[in-house]
Amino acid sequence: MQYRRLGHTGLKLSALSFGAWVTFGDQIGRDEARNLVASAWDHGINFFDNAEGYARGRAEQVMGDVIADLRLPRDGFCVSSKVFFGAVDDPRPTQHGLSRKHVTDACHAALRRLRVDYLDLYYCHRPDPDTPIAETVLAMDTLIRQGKVLYWGTSEWSAAQIQEAVAIARAGHLHLPSMEQPQYNLLHRERVEREYAPLYADPGLGTTVWSPLASGLLTGKYNAGVDAQSRLGQQQLGWLKELVLGEPAAQRLDKVRRYTAVAAELGCSPAQLAIAWCLRNPNVSSVILGASRVGQLEENLGALDLQVDAAGWERVEAAFA
């Protein structure tokens, strides 16, 4: 495993990390979740990502249970939560968003579910148009000073919103956001590579990126269509299918078909190649992997050992031109 600093902080995260989105508490059972966390740990992963909104809190509960069951040393791993969407169906006004109340309540609930005394990383899962950024910054600063959170950050915020949060924190001598969690893959790269570019030097933003495989699209498994048993074929994930395939879907699939052909010619797994591409970006602190099987996770971890020359990467880029 390789380890990278989280932006300008002193925290070192595994270059590949493991997340619970979609799978834990919903798609897979507790035994398989335990096997996945155990395998991730055995391969050197030290960052486990979660959120209050994943399976309405059940993902955090399952992850907390299996980490406790495996008796992982608390000083050897980092765990995160994210706040915004809430952990209940049809949340009441104080059960979602980024108000000081919900940020605080959600932190305490995550600590209970994850069975830890503090969160290593705590993210604002989306910007909240109904809450002043200053209120959220102060809430995060308070949690850090109380020892309940070590680093706070954002997920899918605009660069302007992050810059506003930084300015507020500096003016009030409060803790600055340390990281952002954006989507980043060969089909979705503009924000990480261009919009956030000024933020890597100042304030020294780290990134823990999600969906390196575009929810499986970049593996090539949807090249011939969407199977009803696949993730994008599940009725309850129709919103994800629309998000991943986009419009027009045929154009995106044509690019992926060209890409998987290039991967085959290079003798690479399309999944490993896509993850290795993300790791080439020096501003990526950690790439979050998701998996429903141990074999799938172990295959994706092989991206760390992938060797592709400059000409090969040029061919990958050309597939998406």
Q: In words, what does this structure look like?
A:
By secondary structure, this protein is an alpha/beta fold. The protein has a single domain (3-215, 278-308), classed as NADP-dependent oxidoreductase domain (TIM Barrel), CATH 3.20.20.100. 41% of the residues lie in helices and 13% in strands. Strands 3-4-5-6-7-8-9-10 form an eight-stranded parallel barrel, surrounded by four helices. A two-stranded antiparallel ribbon has the order 1-2. Strand 8 (179-180), helix 7 and strand 9 (206-209) form a beta-alpha-beta unit. Helix 4 (100-114) packs across helix 5, helix 5 (133-145) packs across helix 6 and helix 9 runs antiparallel to helix 12. The longest helix has 18 residues, at 249-266. The model has no long low-confidence stretch (mean pLDDT 94).
Q: Indicate the proportion of strand residues.
A: 5-15%
CATH class call: Alpha Beta
Q: Give Rg in angstroms.
A: 19 Å
**CATH level 3 topology:** TIM Barrel
Give the key terms:
321 residues, alpha/beta, TIM Barrel, 12 helices, eight-stranded parallel β-barrel
Give a short overview.
With 321 residues, the protein is an alpha/beta fold.
Topology:
Layout (H helix, E strand, L loop, with lengths): L2 E3 L6 E3 L1 E4 L3 H5 L2 H13 L4 E3 L8 H13 L7 E6 L16 H15 L4 E6 L8 H13 L3 E6 L4 H13 L7 E2 L9 H6 L10 E4 L28 H8 L3 H18 L3 H10 L6 E4 L4 H8 L8 H10 L2
Parallel strand pairs: 3-4, 3-10, 4-5, 5-6, 6-7, 7-8, 8-9, 9-10
Antiparallel strand pairs: 1-2
Helix pairs in contact: 2-3, 3-4, 4-5, 5-6, 9-12
